[in-house]
Amino acid sequence: MAYVINGLTFAMMLFVLSAGLNIILGFLGVLNFAHGALFILGAYVTYAVTQTLGDFWLGLLIAPLVVGLFGMLIEFVFLRPLYKRHHVYTILLTFGLILVIYDIIKIIWGSDVKTVVTPPLLSGSFTLFGEIIPVASVFIILVGVLTAGGLWFIFKKTTFGKILTAISLDREIANALGFNVARRGTLAFGLGALLAGLAGVLGSLKLSIAAGVDAEFLIYSFAIVVIGGVGSFRGTLLASLIVGEMSVLGGVFLPELSMSLIFVLLVVFLTLYPRGMFGREIEQMHVPVVPYLGNVATAFQRLSATQLSLLSSLLVVALLVVAPLALPKYWTYLLAEIMVFALFAISFNVLFGFTGMLSFGQASIFGAGAYTISLMLIHVTGNWWLAFAASLVISTGVAVIIGLMSIHRSEIYFGMLTMAFAMLFYSIIYKWNSLTGGADGLSGIPSPVLKFGFTEVEILTPLANYYFILVVVAICYFILRTIMNSPFGQVLLAIRENPTRTEFLGLPVKKYKFIAFVIAGVFTGVAGALFAPFAGTIDALASHWSKSGEPIFMSLIGGISTLIGPGVGTLFYYVLHSYIVSITEYWQLVMGSILITVVMLFPMGITGYAKKFILSFKSS
Amino acid sequence: MEILRIQDVTMSFGKMNALHEVNCAVEPHELLAVIGPNGAGKTTFFNVITGKYKPSRGQVFFKGERIDGLSRPQIINKGIGRSFQVVNLFPDLTVAANVRIGVLAHQKQTLRLFKNVDKMAEVDQEVERILDLVHLGDEAGVVATTLSHGDQKCLEMGMALTNHPALLLLDEPTAGMGPEETRQSIELIKDVWRKTGVTIVFTEHDLDMVFNISTRVLVLQSGKLIADGSVKDIRNNPRVKEAYLGEEA
Q: B4-79+164-248: which CATH number, 3.40.50.300, 3.30.470.10, 3.40.50.11890, 3.40.120.10?
């Protein structure tokens, strides 16, 4: 019984948070990754108000308003210019906002954990049917119920709510009818953020407040919105109850499985009932991922440009060959790591920049490669070739499974489905302690031993490791390059530009998308297999879905329209990151601001602009 | 043998019948126009043939083989080419690359992963042939979206020809064009029709153009086929006059 009350309390907190996420996704089509950060911001504001004014109840009033206004500002300044672009840009922007919000919190409140003093009215507990029930829990449940009632009233009874619903059903018609769609979008985002802030107030009664604890809440919220259905508060309420109780009761009775079960449920809904229990499907238009490219895209088709890119690729390899001779030892190590993640990012971008598929599941494939080779090297064989082959088989298998199940959905649903798989995969790795070492992961992974006929080469020194990685990554790069310049690669470009037209040329789009997904998976698996023995350790975080965000970031910085772009982006990211970390502790603020700037103003990335510059130079 | 047969096809969206028990057949090498006022069901007619919609009732036969219910690529690969009312291209690719995708698909080269697409002479030849056919030979290296509207329509027709179709469906090939572009477009359609021997079915708004080039005309009104005959028959058909005058009145 006490567990059921606990589950109900958790469920109501999740409901308030998820209702906000649902409004933002349903009315604006924005998958707001910063929703968790807004939630924790609400908790911090509550803390500040309680601390300075000595009154929690003022916090309850002020925190949601502050977060709501902050949300409106975000929508107005950052999101509004991005609606016409591919949805990845709004997603990336909210990713950047997370970093910025975390550091703003750090600047104002420092990085130690905060707790809010529970007001006298809410502290203590009472006994009901022989069970001890905390008053704070009853309060949270009450606020959840009131929120549900309030939302029902706003969206069913007020003109504002009805107009919002009309807008979400058909933006263009609403616009034509003379409604100020843009202004109401700002208000909708504000309302969503306000609810996140309110959830933060409720959370502050139960949680230790620290940036980062919101990640779990965010994930559950996504699950709830999808399961309940976009645009339906009734669905969100019911799904919150299911997820809340599953999480608490599952945590008690099935601790190994509870997390995975929620994600299995999420996968089932996304695959079979993408509308959720009561919702509707998000309407989306196909927009190519590469905006405003103009002449640059033709570079793919021009022989001279192809030669140019081949030459520059060879130049990069040559530079990498001599780099360890000129650079300090630390850099040899760092460059090796950069090459591994460059391969990760490049293979991700084969899907994203070249085929137009935004996958959040790549970290699972990377993790599958890394864990398999580690387990093989630790338990089965010292022979690298064998371990590597096994790891390729497993990571490709994971790619095939995720691909087969996700490929039937497109655009934002494909993204959410791959993300659900990533969470499921992570929860398995995290909980399967006996095999994977759980959160601690595996360590003491032996360095590779390469057998060539009768001789054996053990890759021991950082320098040997460096050259070993260079060889493998260069081979992979040139294979991918060949594939992208092939007829198959042309079909991928066609799908990116216009999938419907591609079908009307007689090409079954899903089949090609699937093959692309598997190809990207193979090379992502290779990156994972290179990474683990090189680092010597691997932990569950390597396969966390947020890890799938990194290649997106790197691709965008480097330029998604070129094959080498994400590699350049990775180098840039690492160098910048190590520099910023050395000069300020607020590196997240700087990196987040850079990400936001790139998303908003420089979507072509470094190589995109370089190519444009060179081509304009050539033509003039 | 007839190339296309539409048999008792009804296509309903909710309670509305966009097509209602339509029956017709197309013979080889016709240049057939489908006309009718706005909302008559012309585009739905095409969408049902090319598998964008599965008809609610009735059947579609292509060269005697039933094709309703097949996927779009399957239908296209039987030998049907299609262009769209609103320009529908690969916007960031060059004119040649737009056509090349179709050529690669037709030559069954698209699963080749390790062949350099720039070194495929047969493909290039075919691309060149098609671009010449639609008078875009000089624009091969230009990015598709930088073409004029009329040229984009020509490119679309070129793309629709890449699979050597027996039947070419053109949805309002002169939509949004000025008089001069329209005239050129008509010439092009006639030219392609004569040179390739393809059967063409097109929908059109511009009745002058229809009466100028068609070998036969079908008239749709509110989803029903109200007339089917030669240009002369249609010109003098009172129901057709009524349908069009009704719209103007």
A: 3.40.50.300
